Amino acid sequence: MSDDAPQLYLMTPAGAQASALGPLLAEVMDRIAPACLRIRGGAEEDELGRLADLAREIGHARDVAVVIDDHVKLAQRHGLDGVHLTDGARSVRYARKELGDDAIVGAFCGASRHEGLSAAEHGADYVAFGPITESALYKGEPVELELFQWWSEMIEVPVVAEGAITRDLIAELSPMTDFIALGAEIWTQDDPVAALVQLWT
Q1: What's the burial of 22, exposed, middle or buried (CB within 10 Å: 0-12/13-18/19+)?
Q2: How do residues 156-184 score in pLDDT, each as one tens digit?
Q3: Residue 1, in any domain of the structure
Q4: Which of 2, 21, 23, 183 is spaced 20 to 30 A from 11 at the CA atom?
Q5: Residue 174, in any domain of the structure
Q6: Is residue 76 part of a domain?
Q7: Does residue 58 fall inside a structural domain?
Q8: What is the 3-state secondary structure (H, E, C) of 145-189?
């Protein structure tokens, strides 16, 4: 990929078990280094804590920032780089206040330009829009790709595309996104490493 191509933003499988994920996660990240690793919610707090420690160890050894869905306290407790907020702009100010200026605070804003702008105004480091195509994993309607085009031309805050990403969509989104998030796209396959290589290269 060229220098101005988007960077990989890797998401763990929702509800993952740290013990099962560890070796595979390291293998995936060694094959294609992500700019950021995001721990998805869905597990119990104890398991999320174990995942946080594992992700921090693997991520920081590779100079990869690690964020976690919504859990500000877990981010603090486990030395993560920040949070990914799944409720749009609502919690951005709170997370920033709790975690400080140096932490990463990202916001998922569905398909709403307004929500994205609010999150950016409240101090989000990046805004994520999705899903890109129909997905049972997301509540909302798919995002119009024009939103990414508009955002990349008008707004300086980096933008992430996530949700039901295909190889063709990566090519289409590349000129207008800073990051492309992959998660279920690879983890649901028999060989996540091969699936990532096939999608990304």
Answers
A1: middle
A2: 999 999 999 999 999 999 999 999 999 99
A3: no
A4: 2
A5: yes
A6: yes
A7: yes
A8: HHHHHHHHHHCCCCEEECCCCCHHHHHHHHHHCCEEEECHHHHCC
